Please model this.
Amino acid sequence: MIGNVLEIQEISKDYDGFVLDKVSFKIPRGVIMGLIGENGAGKSTTINCILNETQKTDGKILIFGKDHILDEIEVKDKIGVVFDENHFPDIFTAEEIGKFMSGIYSVWDWPLYRRYLEKFELPNDKKIKDFSKGMKVKLAFAVALSHEAELLILDEATSGLDPIIRDEVLDMLIDFVQDENHSVLVSSHITSDLEKVADYITFLHKGKLIFTHEKDSLIDNYGILNCGAAIFDTLDKSEIVAYRKEDYQFRVLVKDRNKAAKQYANAIVGPATIEEIMLFYVKGEMQ
Model:
């Protein structure tokens, strides 16, 4: 199956004091898209608009090529969602959640669900109110992965997990997209996780889309140039994305580090992480 699993076309949402401003991006089948940005950037608003939990002000959202509102029941049957907070009734057990979900989704894989409960060491008969935060998140993953979802949407879902379980979840996401029919949209502050698993990165800042790029392109090309004031004054300003002055030196984010290294032999140029790229856009000075 070809095409995009999700298409966001200039969606906007107006709140008092915040505007999600004509955000557009696409997620092809078979990829993991990382959604990054500071708190309040619009990540959760975007996800809530996709799920129609928040009504967008303008724009269009297509899921599996279908309108996310007109065909809401059909498309949500193929979406798995994991939030950072528990969305299940606290009085239910994991077994009861399975029975409840089996009545909601057109397909429910009981053996797979129970394997995930065992894998995540989640008791069948313990009420969710007695689960830790990490256990609640793992239960949400078990549900999301047990009804043949074609799109997983994760909103800061791994933040409550210990590093070992988080790493296992990341491996599961990689496995999930291997058949090139499934896709993942994952919003996360843990950018190192996205560096490990994401194929694309979409960056929101103050409600605006800064970029959506292939992750490897960002990692391979962006760089940080360190220099003194004398060299900084000679830099081609068109090559500068943003800069930060620290004590007696400048740290400069550039889009082409190999080019910068050749042009400015007396400067130190190294690679930039996804987190550093985000921080420069958010906190750096623009030319």
The first helix runs from residue 43 to 50.
